[in-house]
Design brief:
Blueprint lengths: L1 E15 L10 E10 L3 E14 L4 E14 L2 E14 L2 E8 L5 E2 L5 E9 L2 E9 L5
Antiparallel strand pairs: 1-2, 1-9, 2-3, 3-4, 4-5, 5-6, 5-7, 6-8, 8-9
Length: 134
Amino acid sequence: MTAQATGPFEIKMAPLDTYNQAEGAGIARFSIDKEYSGDIEATSQGEMVSAGSPQEGRAGYVAMERVTGTLAGRQGSFVLQHSATMDGSSQEQSISVVPGSTTGGLTDLTGSMRIIIENGAHSYEFEYTLPDSE
């Protein structure tokens, strides 16, 4: 049975050294630390690589983020894989649970997440399936 989790999250990002440091490469790397509230009570750590011109609203990023905490009363961890692009007024994002990355009470969790940013505040919508969660 598919369920939905929603809530806010706080995010802190910090620049990391990049492999490709050629002038004009336009590639940046960041650490990600998040604190989820609402239906997911968890913290996460991850890494993001981005390219393009985010100042102009034209960029893309990929990331891996390990989430550790509680969902639907079950404690464990899972990894989210992110891929997103924006080009002026349009945006596309794909964020999903990595198969084989789930642990503890969240073993065999599957799902996809959508990040919402409104007025500078971040929130999530997470559609998921947990075995025996009916």
